[in-house]
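Follow-up to my earlier ticket, as requested here are the two runs.
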Amino acid sequence: MDEVSPWEWKKIAGKYKGCLIGQKNDFIYSDAGEDALLYWSGAWYSPKKEFAPLKNKLVAEERELIETLIVFYSDVSLSVNPYDLDLMIVPILLSRRTSYEKNVLKWCKELWKRANSLEDLLRMDFSVVGTSYQLTQLKESLFDLKSEVIPKLGENLDPQELRLTLMKCKHVGPKVADAYLLFTGIDVSATPVDIHLIRMVQRLSLVKYSKLPSKEYCKRFTCDDCPISHNCLRAIFTRKFERLSGWIQTVFYLHDKLYCYKSMCDKCSLKSYCVQG
């Protein structure tokens, strides 16, 4: 999406290219149809609804924490794009170890000026956009995506099996695979384990774990079958918070950047839960 005016964006690649989505006061609109509007705006997803079946499974302090998150981040949902399953991997791969705001948005805008499909990207010389390793490695990943993943997307594959397939792609590790599953809407329980999630889990003493997801295990096992799943942050977090997991990871990313990184403890809504506060 490219911002064309305050509170209005235009889709610049893939299905519905050129369509608009915007907000005026409390009214959201799009010329792409109701379903697309719901997915892109996040209106399709309700943290409150997903939290309801979890209440009796969580201890009191966990319930209170999640309730606080839902109130404090009531305007945050999950924006997903289930229409461009071939293109959604691009910004996710480019986001590895770099700034999304400073670099990834810039690179994607340049890519989408020159390409509108996976085939266009496979024919493209990415050096015209930049020479970072993210761009240099992108084509290898896309060729693997075309041969390994795309043929299986129409098979109603279980998300955990699709995650195994994604791991066959060069430069795709657990975090990239989970971000793909989450932001395509294929699996909202998928939890990209990044530094923000790790920090927030530690600050809030939310779950006990001793392992982080690694490609060594994730390319061979689903979480259900993995020998380290009872110690792995990703597996433990997803089992505990189920379909709320991806949303929690999203608000943890925001909270870490907006409050913790700036040491704004005095204004933090989670201060009473924080072991470092």
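Run two:
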Amino acid sequence: MGTKILKSHMFVVEKYLANGEFDKMKARLVADGRDQDAAMYPDKSSLTVAIHSVFTALGLASGKPWRIVVKIDIKGVFVQTPMKGGPVYMRVDPKISRYMIEIFAKLKEMLEADGCLYTLLLKAMYGCVQASALWYALIRSFLEELGYECSPTDRCVFRKRVGGRIFVLLLYVDDILAQVDEKEAVNLREHLMRKFGEVQFKVGSKLSYLGMQIDIRDEGTIVDMSFYVKKLLEGASVKGQSSPGNHDSFIVDEHAQRFEESKKKYFHSTTAKLLYLAKRARPDILTVVIFLCTRVQEATVQDRDKLDRVLGYLQWTEDYVLVL
């Protein structure tokens, strides 16, 4: 009847902690939301906590003797979130359909001639343009029922005052970083497991969060991304430098030779990785990296020299950490 049926894909990826240790093998079946009419879903952003909110909370964590830090991972959040709006249909490709039938034999009756299973999505399947907004509405409502208030400056920060103590939850899609006391940690665990079933809790002063290795100590919180730096430098043939830039770093030579496409892509992707690093654990390179970001579309041989200088500085200072 003219209804758009979304394709599906499955990806499998190895996940590592911020210190380089293997974490898990992760597989996920996703819908291809590119075929949806985005105009029908004006609120489709994936809300994630701002990095400055994370640092503010981590900086405060070391100053409260009663405070414990809990990393909470809610499993399968999108398939626990009811789909709302008009019907959304998805085609499961033949290979995945075969695997599904091996597990659930009754599905064979529903297999179409093209070898695919066709589904009506009752839950907010990952990849659908509205999935993130629906999940956020669900988790926000749940946390507010527990007495948490949404911050007016960052919608992924939730606060709750109990006596003289202020508890803070940071929301990054399905990962929650909680700064609470022991009693509230137990309360959160009970309510989250009752609502969502499988929920993983990691309690401790050392944890991996958003690509950063966090170590909360009495004297301050240490943010370490040295493993990320090590991986970034793999294959890079650069000379160690004592600073990320010099007096020539912000001068543009309009006559310098421009990059061919392959080198331009390398410059673009490496600069993006540097920006990710600079906005987290290495603000010492941020000024030069921001300038390099302005050059990704017009990169030249001169810009490559500036990029190599930043990499050389990281090679010289690979073990630097940020203390909050």
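The only thing I checked on run two: The chain has a mean pLDDT of 90. Let me know what else you need.
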